[in-house]
């Protein structure tokens, strides 16, 4: 397993784990997180990423995962996150994204979609901070008025999670 970490000399806010087979992604994000309050770790495959998450899930609030990996894709990693007690927020990274990918990422439970080639440092840090805050914030459940088939004009209340564009309300 080829896992590495950088030491920025500051007390880290937590570990950002990048799971990507692209050397350019590792180099770019290592440079962005170097000197920040985040400790950076990398894994090259989904199976390596899952091992790191299972081992260090308390210290990893955010995982950035390349859209497709040699041994699967980001959805494989996302299903593994449901098995850990302190579930990190998952940010999917893609060089090419369309509306269908955005919808799929958000609907399946990832936090956000980050566009690469090259990564914008301010955007990476902003999305990482937001993902960390979302992970540390409990999901609030509240009644949502719903009208559905067979309800015949009456309303009934259900408890639901409310999400918009990757951010919890």
Please describe the structure with a list of short key phrases separated by commas or semicolons.
169 residues, alpha/beta, Rossmann fold, six-stranded mixed β-sheet, two-stranded antiparallel ribbon, 5 helices, 12 strands, 28% strand, disordered C terminus
Shape summary:
globular
**Order of strands across the main sheet:** 1-3-2-4-7-8
Q: What is the radius of gyration computed over CA atoms, rounded to a whole number of angstroms?
A: 17 Å
Helix content: 25-40%
Averaging pLDDT over every residue, what do you get? Answer: 77
A few lines on this structure:
The chain is an alpha/beta fold. The chain has helices at residues 23-33, 46-56, 74-81, 99-107, 121-136, and strands spanning 4-5, 14-19, 38-43, 62-66, 68-69, 72-73, 89-94, 112-115, 142-146, 156-160, 163-164, 167-168. The protein has one domain: 3-Layer(aba) Sandwich (Rossmann fold).
Q: How would you portray this structure in words?
A:
- The chain has 169 residues and is an alpha/beta fold.
- It has a single domain (4-140), classed as Response regulator (Rossmann fold, 3-Layer(aba) Sandwich).
- The chain has five helices and twelve strands.
- It has a six-stranded mixed beta sheet, with helices on both faces. It has a two-stranded antiparallel sheet with strand order 5-6. Strands 9-10 form a two-stranded antiparallel ribbon.
- A hairpin with a 2-residue loop joins β11 and β12 (167-168).
- Mean pLDDT is 77; it is low at 1-11 and 138-169.
Topology:
Elements lengths: L3 E2 L8 E6 L3 H11 L4 E6 L2 H11 L5 E5 L1 E2 L2 E2 H8 L7 E6 L4 H9 L4 E4 L5 H16 L5 E5 L9 E5 L2 E2 L2 E2 L1
Parallel strand pairs: 2-3, 2-4, 4-7, 7-8
Antiparallel strand pairs: 1-3, 5-6, 9-10, 11-12
């Amino acid at each position: 397993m080829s896992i590495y970490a950088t030491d920025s000399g500051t007390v880290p806010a937590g570990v950002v784990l990048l799971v990507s087979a692209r050397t350019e992604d590792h180099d770019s994000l290592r440079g962005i997180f170097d000197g920040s309050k985040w400790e950076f770790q990398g894994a090259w495959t989904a199976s390596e990423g899952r091992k790191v998450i299972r081992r260090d899930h308390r210290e990893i609030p955010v995982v950035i995962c390349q859209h497709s990996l040699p041994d699967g894709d980001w959805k494989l990693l996302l299903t593994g996150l449901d098995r850990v007690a302190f579930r990190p927020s998952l940010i999917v990274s893609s060089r090419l994204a369309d509306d269908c990918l955005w919808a799929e990422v958000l609907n399946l439970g990832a936090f956000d979609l980050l566009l690469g080639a090259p990564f914008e440092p301010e955007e990476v840090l902003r999305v990482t901070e937001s993902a960390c805050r979302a992970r540390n914030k409990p999901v609030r459940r509240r009644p949502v008025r719903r009208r559905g088939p067979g309800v015949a004009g009456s309303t009934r209340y259900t408890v639901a999670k409310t999400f918009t564009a990757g951010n919890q309300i």
